[in-house]
Amino acid sequence: MHTIELKNISKEYNGVTVLNDINLYIQENEFLTLLGPSGCGKTTTLRIIGGFEEPTKGTVLFEEKDITDIPPYKRQINTVFQKYALFPHLDVYDNIAFGLKIKKLPKSEIDSKVKEMLRLVNLQGFEKRSIDSLSGGQQQRIAIARALVNEPKVLLLDEPLGALDLKLRKDMQIELKNMQKRVGITFIYVTHDQEEALTMSDTIVVMDKGRIQQIGTPVDIYNEPKNAFVAEFIGESNIIDGIMHEDYLVEFSGQNFKCVDKGFRKGENIEVVIRPEDIEIVSVANGQLNGIVKSVTFKGVHYEMIIESKDFEWMIHSTIMKEVGTEIGMTVLPENIHIMKKVRAE
Amino acid sequence: MKMKKVAYPYILWMAIFIVIPLFLILYFAFTTGDSQNFATFQFSLDNFKRFFTPTYLKVLGRSVNLAFISTIICLILGYPLAYIISKAEPRKRNMMVLMLVIPMWMNFLLRTYAWLTLLGRNGFINFVITKIGFKPLELIYNDKAVLLGMVYNFLPFMVLPIYTVLIKIEKSLIEAAEDLGANKIEVFSKVVLPLSMPGIITGITMVFIPAVSTFVISALLGGNKYNLIGNLVEQQFRWTGDWHFGSSMSIILMIFILITMALTSKFDKEKEGGGGGLW
């Protein structure tokens, strides 16, 4: 059974389409990330699941029941908002207890649940603190505690780590993932940070221009991008035009390469995606392709080099540094050559 | 705290126009004699003794009562109005605020006089009533006319501070409350109302103070027979010439307002930092 299912969801604002026929299902205990650039419709999708927006077309199913017209307060879904949206007139305890008090639980039960939540987010003893006395990271945890204390079946998170600094964000990513495993509920997470998505998700939904571009596991999305947008958005890549001569044989840059893809028409024009770290630097004699180093940038773990070959500029990530101006050879293993159907350029 | 040099003109200003007059009023309040002749002044508590007699206390009571009722009416009318304006789309919202503020560009006296021509014995309303064959009504020179004048004149002072606080409440807070299971009524009572308390306190203050000390509204719409504490003070200064008694009444009114405001702000338990309150 799917926890949540979106069927043919479209959304328009004043005639502008922001979501175009979204179909998606989310399984129990899944960590699903909606990933895309700003304006791609990921937040709107999340708000439709939360009930804060009504879709123009389509239905939202929650455990196979239609909840499209159910207001947010009647949904078994809770949200961690982008800027936390903690109540400034209430202290930490009352913020977390808000939902439980609405449900009119007995005081002792509220007490023990709030305490347990504070332990889960590692903020014991913060009950009486006011919201503005907390740091961004602490507010973040309180926002998560306030949502989780209601024991929702689904937790929605709208770029919850966006306001935190890099170090804290990395820690929180791991912490959130652990929390999700511990409480065992479905997380639907919105972010524009591809690294964050790759780190945390079971499933990534890449969105652009109101459409789903690809759904898959982080490894699938990274290794087998379905189109140029996904390839560009998830990490760096070299995308070059090519021709598929037969199954397992592709031509690009005037050379034939073995690959692991099949099922294309003979002579079909396709696009080839090669990740910068998948290109190996070899001697000119052993190279499938040759080129001259045009620029070198130190990136910490690796060097980023731009190699100019006769008809393409290749980006290479390598721990070996070659001086600008040297001629090098390059090879790519067949399994690192990814073939994509050609979509007309926009 | 170290004072910057630029603050000196303001300190001088405050001393000349606020502190010194206050002390003068205090001085007058605690003395008796011929108001025009300093030589005759003597320390005395007679002014206060005179005030604490039933005649004057009744006037104070009536003033406070009327101011209290008009404040409540302003709150009851003003809060929903402020709420509706704050929920409107921005263009409409500005229009509505403008409509609320435009009458305030006109002179206060003029606006109050306008009610005379509406409510008077031969005023517009009675004209219509007699035309359709009824007896004219006593619409003016009573409590209700004074209340009407107060509510009419002071309503914007209730609406604007509440409106200002309401539009600043972030939409995400309301969504968060809904998300946590609060229905519309609970969202209002548990989030919107507590967050708008600073605006309510300011509104109450800004309506109650002028209402309790007004003398123009009661003079025009209440007629001469209808005295409020403001009229008493005015009479002492303008007609009777007893500045001492007038000053002591002002002091009593000030103390009264001070106590009221202190009590009001007590209700605002959340010490919201600078949410627009006067306290």
Please explain how this structure is put together:
The complex is a heterodimer of chains A (346) and B (279). With 346 residues, chain A is an alpha+beta fold. Chain A has two domains: 2-228, P-loop containing nucleotide triphosphate hydrolases (Rossmann fold), CATH 3.40.50; 236-341, OB fold (Dihydrolipoamide Acetyltransferase, E2P). In chain A, 24% of the residues lie in helices and 36% in strands. Chain A is built from eight helices and 20 strands. Chain A has a six-stranded mixed sheet with strand order 6-7-8-3-9-10, with helices on both faces. A five-stranded antiparallel sheet of chain A has the order 13-12-11-14-20. Chain A is elongated. In chain A, 38% of the residues are buried. Chain B has 279 residues and is mostly helical. Chain B has a single domain, classed as Orthogonal Bundle (MetI-like fold), CATH 1.10.3720.10. In chain B, 72% of the residues lie in helices and 1% in strands. Chain B contains twelve helices and two strands, in the order αββααααααααααα. In chain B, helix 1 (8-29) crosses helix 12 (243-267), helix 3 packs across helix 7 and helix 8 (171-179) packs across helix 9 (184-213). The radius of gyration of chain B is 23 Å and the shape is globular. The two termini of chain B are 21 Å apart. Residues 270-279 of chain B have low confidence and may be disordered. Classes of the chains: A alpha+beta (346), B mainly alpha (279). Chains A and B meet through strand 6 and helix 2 of A and helix 8 and helix 9 of B. Chain A: The complex is composed of two ATP-binding proteins (PotA), two transmembrane proteins (PotB and PotC) and a solute-binding protein (PotD). Chain A: This is Spermidine/putrescine import ATP-binding protein PotA.
